[in-house]
UniProtKB/TrEMBL annotation:
Organism: Arsukibacterium tuosuense
Superkingdom field: Bacteria
Domain Peptidase M24: start-end pairs: 217-413
Protein name: Xaa-Pro aminopeptidase
Signal sequence residues: 1-21
Length: 454
């Protein structure tokens, strides 16, 4: 991480009229207030929606991605208690485990269509055709091998990868069983399916993009509830109280959190050093505090990752101090710098380097650590910086940017606040967005104004 030292001259630059731009000048700003404004389907109601999404992906997306990856066949083989990371994105719901040993076989035909087969003791049903069911484990492996030989594939993708955990789901034991079951001449046809797995997990369909704004809106709306007097009484409420409100509010909505929400505070007199990667503490919330939260939920197969900021007003205040308003505006400027560098085909490392250069040129003390989102919160795709590494990230950082992929636009800026005696404030922002091939569009808008607690 690059070390920045904020001089008086730089502080003046950051508080110049450009930095004091009104929030309305930043596009896609959106204020939300309550999760009660949004429908949340019951667990039972979610099943047909999720299954329709999965079927559409298998029918519309998988043929293109298998051709793109040069695979004639793809095998997903896993066992109960050791499920492949990609398994649950492929099977109909409700599915809670790969019962005993579960085998999926995807075979590409000459016309580009995909045969979807299950080789399982317990058939999965649509959209899978059962190629075998009901016998013992030895017969199951023999049935899988017979199906492979019958189809004569050239390249057979298996989920084995050195660098991508999501593409490394075939265990050593199952790999050995596969080699034992297959004729020797097929061993050399087994290749890593990591290209296909990453593309399958990162690529969003039109139907998913229809739903995603609702999911992100729910996450942002619960943050808005938490950062209000509905939850916070200055001088009484703690940061942990707010974090648990968020957690329990999602539980009441039957929404899964993929990490424990957390809330921290900054205040005048609580030093924030320029080279400290994260500033903030916990405790009782007081008037004049700056609050930050990080929240992630999953709903209808898709996950979010969101960070927002709040200010607790003094009794004689009606808005956040001008210095804090300017700092949030600088955070929005950093977001715009980053998203302007999103170009199809450009690597995550290249996007990061261009963002850092432009941010430095603008005099912004920033750190960028943006990542893909989708079926999981930290999804595969181009890594655009890491909080502890603002240089190149091997492999994941070299991955190119594709159209119709989703991201957590994540990072932070530090800026001097005159009202705090030029002490630095740390503005930590993260908003879920997607890249349509030409521009980045925030799925439920972004924060351009402070949450205010009275």
């Amino acid at each position: 991480m690059k070390t920045f030292f904020v001089t008086t001259a730089l502080a003046a630059l950051l508080l110049a009229p450009a930095a004091l731009a009104k929030p309305s000048q930043f596009s896609q700003g959106r204020v939300l207030s309550s999760a009660a404004d949004y429908q949340v389907l019951s667990p039972r109601q979610r099943v047909p929606v999720a299954n329709q999404l999965t079927t559409q992906r298998l029918e519309q997306l998988l043929p293109k991605l298998m051709a793109e990856s040069g695979l004639d066949m793809w095998l997903v083989i896993n066992r109960e208690y050791a499920e492949d990371p990609v398994y649950f994105t492929l099977v109909p719901q409700p599915t809670f485990a790969a019962r005993r040993t579960t085998m999926l076989l995807f075979s590409r035909n000459d016309d580009g269509s995909i045969d979807k087969l299950s080789v399982n003791r317990y058939p999965l049903g649509d959209p899978y055709e059962s190629a075998w069911a009901g016998g013992n484990l030895t017969e199951q492996w023999q049935a899988l091998a017979a199906e492979i030989v019958k189809r004569q594939p050239g390249k057979i993708g298996i989920n084995s990868s050195e660098h991508w955990p999501v593409a490394d789901g075939l265990t050593s034991g199952l790999h050995q069983q596969l080699l034992k079951a297959l004729p020797a001449e097929y061993h050399s046809r087994l290749v890593s399916a990591e290209q296909l797995v990453v593309r399958w997990l990162e690529q969003r369909t039109e139907a998913e993009l229809e739903l995603y704004p609702q999911i992100v809106s729910l996450a942002r709306s619960v943050i808005a509830e938490a950062f209000s007097n509905k939850v916070i009484t200055p001088g009484v409420t703690t940061t942990d109280d707010v974090a648990w409100y968020i957690r329990e509010r999602f539980a009441k909505l039957d929404l899964l959190v993929w990490f424990m929400p957390y809330v921290n505070l900054q205040r005048a007199g609580m030093a924030c050093e320029a080279d400290n990667p994260f500033c903030g503490s916990s405790g009782v919330i007081q008037r004049g505090d700056v609050l930050h939260t990080d929240v992630g939920i999953c709903y209808l197969t898709l996950c979010t990752d969101t960070q927002e900021m709040a200010y607790v007003l003094h009794i004689d205040e009606t808005d956040a101090p001008k210095g804090l308003q300017a700092a949030l505006a600088t955070g929005n400027r950093w977001q715009d710098i980053l998203t302007t560098e999103f170009k199809a085909g450009r690597s995550g490392n290249a996007i990061l380097a261009a963002t850092r250069k432009a941010s430095d040129r603008a005099g912004i003390n920033s750190s960028t650590y943006t990542h893909a989102i989708g079926f999981v919160g930290h999804a595969p795709g181009p890594t655009i910086g890491m909080w502890d590494n603002q240089g190149d990230t091997p492999v994941q950082g070299d991955w190119p940017l594709y159209a119709n992929t989703a991201y957590a636009i994540e990072g932070n800026i530090k800026q001097a606040v005159p009202e705090w005696g030029k002490q630095l404030v740390h503005i930590k922002l993260e908003q879920s967005a997607y890249f349509d091939g030409k521009q980045v569009i925030y799925l439920a808008g972004r924060q351009t104004r402070w949450h205010l607690i009275r």
